Structures are given as structure tokens and as C-alpha cells.
Amino acid sequence: MPHQQRGSSQKQSGKQEHRGLMCGIIGYSGPRDAQQVLLEGLQRLEYRGYDSAGIAIVGAEGLQVFKDEGDVAKLMSGMPLIEGHSGIGHTRWATCGRPSKENAHPMVDCDHCLAVVHNGIIENRGELKERLENLGHTFTSETDTEVLVHLLEEYYHGDLRQALKRTLEDVKGTYAIAAVCQGHEEIVAARKENPLIVGLGAEENFLASDITAVLNYTNKIIYIEDGEMLSLTPQEVQIFNNKGEKINKDYIIVSWTAEDAQKGGFEHYMLKEIFEQPVSIHNSLLGNFDKIMAGELLSAQDISSIKLIACGTSYNASLVGKYAIEALSGIPATVELASECRYSSETKEDPLVILVTQSGETADTLAAARLAKKRGQRTLAITNVVGSTITREVDEVFYTQAGPEIGVAATKTYVTQLMAMYMLALKLGKSRMLRRDEIHRYTHGLKAMPRTVANVLAKSEEISAAVDMLTEAQSVFFLGRHINYPTMLEGALKLKEISYIHAEGYAAGELKHGPLALLDADTPIVASCVWDMSYEKMLSAISEVAARDSPVLGIGIEGDRDLEAIVDQAICIPEVEGILSPLPLTVVVQLIAYHTARKRGCPIDRPKNLAKSVTVD
Ligand code: F6R
Q1: According to the model, what pLDDT value does residue 10 have?
Q2: 190 with 231: CB under 8 angstroms?
Q3: Residue 3 within a domain
Q4: Three-class SS of residue 340?
Q5: CA angle 313, 434, 288 (to 5 degrees)
Q6: Residue 294 maps to which CATH number?
Q7: 3-state DSSP percent of the chain in helix, strand and coil, to 5
Q8: Strand pairing partners for 191?
Q9: Residue 23 known to be catalytic
Q10: Which of 67, 68, 89, 337 is the most exposed place for a label (fewest CB within 10 A)?
Q11: Are residues 392 and 528 in the same domain?
Q12: What is the spatial distance between Cα 477 and Cα 488, in angstroms, rounded to a whole number?
């Protein structure tokens, strides 16, 4: 569980924020030089990952905005001294529109009087943009955020908070948003499903996505909740509830160091990222589901077969994709390791090739994309990084919306790759074999997934206790069947990567063809056993290994007494559709790997010999 360090003088139990995903916001109003405070704040937000940055300062010379693609150092190097004591800043991780100066925040209105920074996704940006263009507004970026500043312009008649309130009434989606207006020291802000905090100073106040950005100046923090809006000046911070009524909120005193704060109180980035998965799943649906089902990707294509190509964790996600695509659409799918692709024959070409790479920079996957193009195959990339190299090599791109991942071991990018697979499978199945009620059932299952995964996360301590049977092992086998065979490959990969224990993922049916010879009381087994078509066979496989004295940690469905009776330890997840079970099961195997590595004292976020992005083949 996260180690939450709260100040002893904390005044109230404000909700801890574990959700910082993409982009960073900073705001300041007070007597200091705003430029310095904002740039320093942006540097403290750098750990979140970003591709562009910018600030807007309200000063004697009006509203001044500087922004650029690249890091904060680059932004600073080209910036003059700006006088002013109030402003907002932003680090952007591109999700809608590639990384570029135009797409960087702050966004300004047509008259250059208002500036807005925003984290989140505006779902109805298309219709809002059309409406605003009809009203004469000119758009200069590819972002969804720009609709916010033009809406604000439409509604601004001297009261910035009222204008923001009115703006947000038109908006569907998620946001942490902050805005300033030329000639005013006030900053207005609001939050829905994206983090936002206020830092209280003496005759000065701060606003940020997380407390890291303001810790240098104050440790008096107010956590802003969903639906709340605020107005911040040097003298006061007024907070309003979703009905627009002014409310009183106490601050807490935070005693974290900056590094603690960056990890959101978690011991490691990997654990933080595992705990962010409900939000990542939610965002991946929000950013993709409707447009995919409406036909934005893979439209009008006669797809007779699909090849998925990837490395490492992304390869495991592709294997889940193969099972999901075949089950839901009936289209045959194969999976190939990117590094082996160059040796494959050209004789049987699949019309569609899906390249899966969270970084979008893996050399072998890029080489495979180029080969597919050369062979005239249609290419689709599934990636987490907007503007990454793969996006320029392929015909179509699916962005997973996991937000930046800092831990070397992929976690939240993996579950969002799975989400991508399910959405594509449903989309392909919709025009082929799926009935309306089936689509509804699976869609419902996906939409309930953030809650299901949150229930699994609540078992983190239980999983931590259960892994005592693994921590001293020389070797661990992960067994699964059907769509959870790749889940167990992923469990084994995570374990070996961060705990340095040798681990193998095996299709349970293969045991008797070799690995049984290795099993004994010192070789623990982790086995998945959910209520799907492989259930009975998994129970038999577990009995088989238990008969060789191997200790078994079973992962099953809550209330499965038969499983509990034959394993040494059971971790149980809520019941879900069998085909969707890799999502919660993955979270269990991630936590198994994490807690085992932690108990062995391994450097979890930076395992030896590994890099986050493998750009050599
Ligand atoms: C393991 C891990 C790696 C990557 C692999 C491919 O946790 O992260 O196995 O999955 O290097 O990387 P991408 O997905 O960036 O192509």
C-alpha cells in the first residue's frame, strides 16, 4: 500500500490523490516574480513526463505567453524576462494533437486576452469546435483544449469565474483547468477526474497538479475535489461546489519530501503506476471507445486475417489481442515477435498488420512496420506516445491514453494495450458476428473495469502476504490457459524483470511435455483459474503440480471453494466475463511481482540491464 506521510499537524483527512497521469499544471498569484515561480514549478513537474511546456503571465505589458515543444530548459533558454506576479504554466504530454509549439499550452483566445491550461480529455470537442467556428472563432492548434479558451472567450463578460462555470456546462469529458485574463491577478480553476491542489501562502497562493510543484513555497495544501471550482488571488482562495455555492475547506499540512510527493506517497513509481490503472482504463475508454465504434479506425476494410507484431510486454498484450479478436470477431489472428519478423516468409501475407509498442520507438517493431509497408500490408500502430516514430511509419494509429510511465517495467501501458485489443475486437466483431446484446454485455464489462480493477488493488496487502512463498525461490512457473496463458507469460516476465527470480510462463497443457520434470517442493507455481472454458482443465493442472509437492498460489474468482481446496494460497478477483479476465488478473500478477521484488530489496523502478525504450535491434 502507499506509504502516506501526513503532517502531524494535519487539520483534516483530505482525500489522498493517487491519480496524477498526464501533463502538469502550475499557477501562482502573489508578490513574487511569477515567471520564476512558474518555471521552477514546471521543472518540479518534469518527472510526470511531457513533450512540451509553456507559461502565461499577466503583467504590465498585458498577457504574455511563451511555449515550445521540448523540455523546460529549452523553453527557458529562449525566453526574455517577463514582469508580472500572476500566471499559469503547463507541461504537456500529447494526447490530442502531436507535440508541437502550436499544440503546447497555454492556449489563448482570438483577442489574446485569455489563457487556459488543461489536463484531461474534452470528448465533445468536435461539435464545440464547429459551433465556435460558426461564431467566428479561429483555431490555431490540433488540441481539444483550444475549444475551452474560445468558449471562455464567448462567455467572458467581466467575470472570469462565471465564464468558466458557463464553459464547463457545455463540456463533456474530464479536466483540471486553470485560466487567467489580461489585467487581472485572479486565477480561476476547476477539476473533474484530474488532480488539482491549492497551496496556501502568506499573501500569495499557488495552484498545481500535485504538491511537488509548490512544496518549495508552502506545505499548506487543499485538495480540490471533482466538481469544485475556485478563484485564487494573493489575498484569498474561494472554493465553490458543483452548485456554485461557496464552501469552506480546511487545509492539511504535508510533511513529504519532493521525491515522496512525486511518487504520490507510493514507495515506487511502479506501484504508483499499478494503482493508476483504474484511471488509465477509464481514460483509454473515454479517449477511444466511441470514435472506434463509430468507425474511425479500420473502416471499410475487408480484413481476412490479422498479424500482430511486438516485443516483450507488448508481445504478451498482442497474444491477449489474438484470443480476443478471434473470439469476438472470428477473424484469424497470429502474433509474431518483432525481432523474428525479418525472417518470416512473404508467401502468406495478412492484409492487416498491427504493431504494438508503448514507446513507439522500439527498433525491432519499427523495422517490422517498415517491412509490412514494403510488402504492401495495411498497418495500424497501438502506442502510448503521440508523435513517436511508429506513428509516422504506419497508416493508422490507436493511442492507448495510459499517460507517461516512469517505472521501467510496463504496467499501466500494458493494461491500456489490452483495452485497445478489446475495443478493436469489439469493433471488428460488430460488423461480423456479434449480436447487439453481446456488444452491450462486453461494453458494460469494459466500462465496469475501473471498479473491478480498484477492487483488485484493494487486495495489495493480501497479495504482499501471499508472496512469501515466492521470495526465496530459484524458479517460479506461471501457468494459464487460453486468454490467460499470455497473462501468465506477462506475470513471469514481470517477476524475472524486477525480482531477478527465474520465472517461466507456460500454457498449462504443456506441463506434461517437459516442465513437470522440474517441479518439486522448492519450485512454486502461480496458476490462473477463472470460470471460463479452461476452468476444469486448469483445476486438473493445479492438482497435477500439487501432487509433485510444488506450492501453488492460485488466482481465481471470489467464492471458488474448489480452487481454494487444492491450492496453498488463493487470491480471488471479482467475477468478470472470462474473455475480459486478463485485465484484473494482470493486476494480480503485477502486484505479485512487485511485492516479491520489494521483499527481496530489488531496485524496482530501475532493474539492472534494462531500459525503458529499446532503440537498438
Ligand atoms: C517489460 C517491458 C518490455 C517492453 C518491450 C517493448 O516490462 O516493458 O518488455 O514491453 O521492450 O517495448 P515497447 O512496447 O515500447 O515496444
Answers
A1: 32
A2: no
A3: no
A4: helix
A5: 50
A6: 3.40.50.10490
A7: 40, 20, 40
A8: 176
A9: yes
A10: 337
A11: no
A12: 9
219 contacts 253 by C-beta, under 8 angstroms: yes
pLDDT digits (tens, 9 = 90+) for 384-410: 988 788 998 999 999 999 887 888 899
Domain count of the chain? Answer: 3
Closest C-alpha to ligand 1, atom 15: 359
Facing residues of 527 across strands? 479, 554
User: How far, in whole angstroms, is CA 585 from its chain's centroid?
Assistant: 18
* CATH code for the domain in which residue 150 is found: 3.60.20.10
Which residue minimizes the CA distance to atom 13 of ligand 1? 357
Omega before residue 574 within 30° of 0, cis: no
Of all atoms in ligand 1, which is nearest to the CA of residue 365?
16
pLDDT tens for residues 152-172? 999 999 999 999 999 999 999
Domain of residue 556 covers 457-608
Q: Are residues 360 and 408 in the same domain?
A: yes
What pLDDT sits at residue 187?
98
Based on the domain organization, do 154 and 60 belong to the same domain? yes
What pLDDT shows up at residue 46?
A: 84
Helix H or strand E segment including 160 = helix 160-169
Atom number in ligand 1 closest to CA 338: 16
Give yes or no for a contact between 403 and 385, defined as CB atoms under 8 angstroms apart.
no
CB 371 within 8 A of CB 394: no
pLDDT at site 616: 59
Taking the whole predicted model, whether its pTM rises above 0.85 is answered as no
Ligand 1: atom nearest CA of 614 is: 11
Farthest CA pair distance, the chain? 80
Domain for residue 219, yes or no? Answer: yes
> Do 183 and 316 belong to one domain?
no
CA of 557 to the centre of ligand 1 (A): 29
Buried b (16+ CB within 10 A) or exposed e, 134-160: eeebebebebbbbbbbbbbbbbbeeeb
Q: Which stretches of 431-473 are DSSP H helices?
A: 436-447, 449-457, 460-466
User: Does residue 238 sit in the same domain as residue 358?
Assistant: no
Give, for 512, the enclosing helix (H) or strand (E): none
- The single residue of 373, 459, 537, 612 carrying the catalytic annotation is 612
For every residue of 191-232, DSSP letters joined together read EEBS--EEEE-SS-EEEESSGGGTTTT--EEEEPPTT-EEEE
Distance from Cα 330 to the centre of ligand 1, integer Å: 28
Beta strands (DSSP E) in 37-184 are 52-59, 62-69, 86-92, 107-108, 114-119, 175-181
Distance 22 CA to ligand 1 centre (A): 20
Which amino acid type is present at position 72? V
β pairing state of 24-29 and 205-208? antiparallel
| Boundary residue ending a domain (419, 447, 475) | 447
In the reported structure, the alpha carbon of residue 465 is separated from the centroid of ligand 1 by a whole-number distance in angstroms of 28
Same domain, 68 and 166: yes
Task: Identify the pLDDT of residue 12.
Answer: 29
> Pocket residues for ligand 1 (CB within 6 Å)?
311-314, 357-359, 362, 365, 409-410, 493, 497, 613-614
Between CA 478 and CA 174 the distance in angstroms is 38
